[in-house]
Amino acid sequence: MSRLRLAILISGRGTNMERLLQAAADETYPARACLVLSNRANAAGLDTARAYGVEALAIPHKDFEDRERFEHAMDAALREHGIEILALAGFMRVLTPWFVRQWEGRMINIHPSLLPKYPGLDTHKRAIEAGDAEAGCSVHWVSESVDAGDVIAQARVPVKAGDTPEELADRVLVEEHVLYPHALAQACEQIQKKPSS
């Protein structure tokens, strides 16, 4: 089975991106990293991508009058590179319904909570304040509603007595790095099983 052409969208250092690049360097992995795209020209992850031999491209959202023009430029770059699956890895922009529809069923995201709990921001603080016994991370299909798409896979960590949001975030991040490559492989397999339209 052929490997899907993968693009990873980032806004910062891209630690999850790096785990995906490591996984995709294996020729038996179902995705091949073809592009890393950032909405920030100074994102540290762009240099990391280049170190892995993957093309890295910045399309700064601030260069555009509105979200629609920015997303059309991003969409054009993805299509130019023949991208078949998108992975969001710390991409700090809420995508419009238009963009989500262009990539529906081919775009995944990692979120630092056990969805459907705590979509959006401050997930670790919210889990601690709620008295949750466990927290974790979820990889899900991107839908028009934020963090509401079908979950592909999750990993759990205990919430410890006296945890700060930062301590919990550090433990969850360790699990994110393990979970995301496995979940991306599952997503690729689901796409490849779909009948061609």
Report on this model:
The protein has helices at 15-24, 44-51, 67-80, 97-102, 123-129, 165-193, and strands spanning 4-10, 31-38, 56-58, 85-88, 107-111, 134-141, 151-158. By secondary structure, it is α/β, with parallel strands linked by helices. It has a seven-stranded mixed beta sheet, with helices on one face. Helix 1 (15-24) packs parallel to helix 6 and helix 5 packs across helix 6.
Please write out the topology:
Elements: E1 4-10, H1 15-24, E2 31-38, H2 44-51, E3 56-58, H3 67-80, E4 85-88, H4 97-102, E5 107-111, H5 123-129, E6 134-141, E7 151-158, H6 165-193
Helix pairs in contact: 1-6, 5-6
Number of helices: 6
Q: What general outline do the C-alpha atoms trace?
A: globular
Q: Hey, roughly how much beta strand do the residues contain?
A: 15-25%
State the low-pLDDT regions, or none: none
Radius of gyration: 16 Å
Helix content: 25-40%
**pLDDT averaged over residues:** 96
Q: Tell me about the largest β-sheet.
A: 7 strands, mixed
**Ends: how far apart?**
18 Å
Which sequence of strands runs across the widest sheet?
3-2-1-4-5-6-7
Tally of extended strands? 7
Q: Element order, helices and strands?
A: EHEHEHEHEHEEH
Structural class estimated from helices and strands: alpha/beta
